[in-house]
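Morning. Coffee machine broken again, so started the prediction first thing and wrote up yesterday's gels while waiting. Chain of 264 residues, entered below exactly as on the submission form.
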Amino acid sequence: MHDGFVDIHCHLLPGIDDGATDLETSLGMARMAVEDGTSTILVTPHQLGNFGHNRGDDIRRRTADLQQALNEHQIPLQILPGGDVRIEDGMIEQLVSGEVLSLGDLRKHVLLELPHELYFPMEGILSALERQGMTGILSHPERNRGILREPGLVPKLVGEGCLMQVTAGSLMGTFGPNCQQLAEWMITEGLVHFVATDAHGTKKRRPLMQRAFDRVRELAGKSAAKKLCIRNPGLVACGQRVPAGRHAQSRRGWRSLLPARRVA
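Came back before lunch.
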């Protein structure tokens, strides 16, 4: 099992999407991540949506090239191929064919992205993935405007077997108080399975996990912090099953902890 943090959502590959712009930036991000305690990153360039041109074989090749560069620069970081997949028609077929990548390219877990401005029902998508032996992980639900308006969607999705990935920066207030409040409520309610950086560079949205780990520990204890930042993402990196569902209960009813503010 992995000793350091395992980041399952990071735009580390250079020159492929809105993440690292060049190799120098990728190497800088990698050094920053290692210094912060990360040992493994699943690189997740955007796929589908506005990034339909990003194909599986190209991501695999770029991942291998970046790993070689990391080794040559003696940066002790393992990287694995993956994708940040916008939900759209034809997605399942492309996952099966390998044109769209599962996390680690292991065909076990798929990082799913909703449009930021709205929520639409995911039950059919989750079922279709399950029939292919894959599990959906919803990326940054705390930043989705539809979910911010209706946080009660989260426990329903978790009950359907969807795994939840919260952004490290959300726990630090990077995306504003509404996102932070929802992320913290999800943590205390046991509705989060992973914390990941969704890093895009070295100056903003950086690949830092330690502060978020410390915040999860404050909210839910050290065991939960290790589970969300090390153990569960480590299972994804190995292609092993991550326990679904709610993994802890708050002492208060979840409705009493719903974020009071709503985003219009």
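The CA atoms of residues 127 and 160 lie 9 Å apart. Going to sketch it on the whiteboard this afternoon.
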